[in-house]
Specification:
single chain; Rhopdopsin 7-helix transmembrane proteins; 10 helices; 3 strands; globular; disordered N terminus; disordered C terminus
Length: about 325
């Protein structure tokens, strides 16, 4: 495509998995099953937090919002993947592609910051228990959530505008959805500015900054736990943090591989596999991990099942 015709680009073609034609039906069923399971898991978490008065606390409020983010995230990406697998027409309009790009980057950034806020919540609950209620009041954690969404929206808008200004020499996106690395691959001009912003803003302020905050928070948390004299108290306190640590490890591990790399090291075939785990499996695992490790959530689930069983027996 000549540079003179770049302004005529009105749609992109999503390649998806061009080499797995025989396994498309199997992949479709697999992704659909994961999608439906993720929807049900996250909706269940949101519902029990919303309607169980014993779960009206800051940590469960943040957990409910994490489920909302995961629910939105998988709904932005997986339907596109399913359509690619079964449809002969794999095109997506220019506007739809960049709406999807904005949504993906916005939700990823929001989850990064929210995980840091959850670490701060655990730090206060364990290290400053007598000040916890005063500091983490309803107004404070609502303001933290608003700040998270605002900062993530501005961060996403910056990337979206910078990529939208690029001239594209190709319209074939060798990926499953519109994301930063595959779109940078299509540009026929130098994308050094975009890569600098990706490393500087995303890598440092949205990625490394919250991760360091989480790391420092857990240094204080572990130090406080080690000072406890009761072995039962140590195990119970660490159990409240284990789910968060597992989610942080999975999310940041795959996320850093996806984004914090130079353009020259991108491998679309390998990155698509990582994206499947990052965008499909992780939102499914989050509510499962939290429901298994959080005693309040497990108790609420057991009570809910008992009520349903009792109502059915009547």
């Amino acid at each position: 495509m000549s540079i003179a015709n770049l302004t005529s680009v009105s749609k992109f073609n999503m390649l998806g998995f061009p080499d797995v034609t025989e396994a498309r039906v199997l992949l479709f069923v697999l992704f659909l099953g994961i999608y439906l399971l993720t929807l049900s898991d996250n909706l269940l978490i949101i519902s029990i937090i919303q309607y169980d008065s014993s779960l009206q606390n800051p940590m469960c409020f943040l957990l409910g919002n994490l489920s909302v983010i995961d629910l939105c995230y998988i709904s932005v990406t997986v339907p596109q993947m399913l359509a690619i697998l079964v449809s002969k027409h794999k095109s997506i309009s220019f506007v739809s592609c960049f709406v999807q790009l904005f949504s993906v980057v916005f939700l990823e950034g929001a989850e990064c910051i929210l995980l840091a806020i959850m670490a701060y919540d655990r730090y206060l609950a364990i290290c400053k228990p007598f000040h916890y209620i005063l500091i983490m009041s309803k107004g404070i954690y609502q303001k933290l959530l608003c700040g998270t969404l605002t900062g993530s929206a501005l961060h996403s808008l910056l990337h979206t505008l910078l990529i939208a200004r690029l001239p594209f020499c190709d319209t074939r996106i060798n990926h499953l959805f519109c994301d930063i690395p595959p779109l940078l691959k299509l540009s026929c001009i130098d994308t050094h500015l975009n890569e600098m912003v990706l490393f500087g803003v995303s890598g440092v302020f949205v990625g490394l900054g919250p991760l360091l905050f989480i790391f420092v928070s857990y240094i204080y948390i572990v130090s406080t736990i080690l000072k406890m004299t009761s072995g039962v108290g140590k195990r119970k306190t660490f159990s409240t943090c284990a789910a968060h640590l597992i989610v942080v490890t999975i999310f940041y591990g795959t996320g850093s591989f996806n984004y914090v790399r130079p353009k020259s090291s991108y491998s679309m075939e390998r990155d698509k596999l990582v994206s499947v785990f990052y965008n499909v499996v992780t939102p499914m695992l989050n509510p499962i991990i939290y429901s298994l490790r959080n005693s309040e959530i497990k108790r609420s689930l057991r009570n809910g099942f008992r009520r349903c069983q009792f109502s059915w027996m009547i």
